[in-house]
Specification:
Shape: globular
Largest sheet: none
Distance between the termini: 32 Å
Radius of gyration: 17 Å
Oligomer: single chain
Structural class: mainly alpha
Helix content: over 70%
Order of helices and strands: HHHHHHH
């Protein structure tokens, strides 16, 4: 199905690396006992975010975009985002709202996107600006809340609420885009 060359491109290796960081993050986050442990958890997410940034840059600049990469990169992104949100629910109860929004948004994209693909053979557009902004904000806020450990504070509540609002805006944007594509195939 995929060639050895496609499997082992640098961008794809960076995506595998992000997936491998997920259980490491979970272990460090749930065993954090000191401020250094919280910084280490946040550092793992920073490393994951940087590898995501670099895999896209490398793939585009050196023409290493592959069909496998188009599959594995979003899986690594969504897996990391969902695991971080679920993990943070244990410390920040408002993250439950973020988990619900993420599941609704990504579920909508997955199921309606699959339906459109089955009907037309076309993939829906990759991440758009509102989704990229919401995701970047999610990771910045998550990294800050992990590093500085601010449960039950007003600043944490505001940060999570603002992130949730950006996620809802992205979800609505994608819903409108999917609706227009769906209307085009009727």
């Amino acid at each position: 199905m995929f060639t050895k060359k496609e499997i082992f491109t640098i961008p794809n290796i960076l995506s595998y690396f992000r997936i491998a960081l997920v259980p490491i993050f979970i272990y460090v986050y749930f065993h954090a006992e000191s401020q250094q442990d919280h910084f280490l958890s946040a550092g793992i997410l920073v490393l994951s975010s940087l590898s995501d940034l670099f895999d896209g840059m490398i793939a585009r600049k050196f023409n290493m975009i592959t069909e496998l990469g188009k599959l594995i990169d979003p899986i690594a992104d969504k897996l990391t985002q969902l695991v971080v949100a679920i993990a943070l629910m244990s410390t920040y109860h408002l993250y439950t709202l973020l988990v619900i929004i993420i599941l609704l948004k990504d579920g909508m994209l997955l199921f309606i996107g699959y339906y459109i693909y089955r009907k037309t053979g076309r993939h829906i557009n990759q991440a758009q600006l509102p989704g990229k902004i919401a995701t970047a904000l999610f990771f910045v806020v998550s990294i800050a809340l992990i590093a500085f450990y601010l449960p039950n504070t007003a600043i944490a509540s505001v940060m999570i609420t603002v992130t949730s609002l950006f996620m809802v805006v992205a979800m609505v944007y994608y819903a409108i885009e999917l609706y227009h594509v769906y209307q085009g195939i009727l």
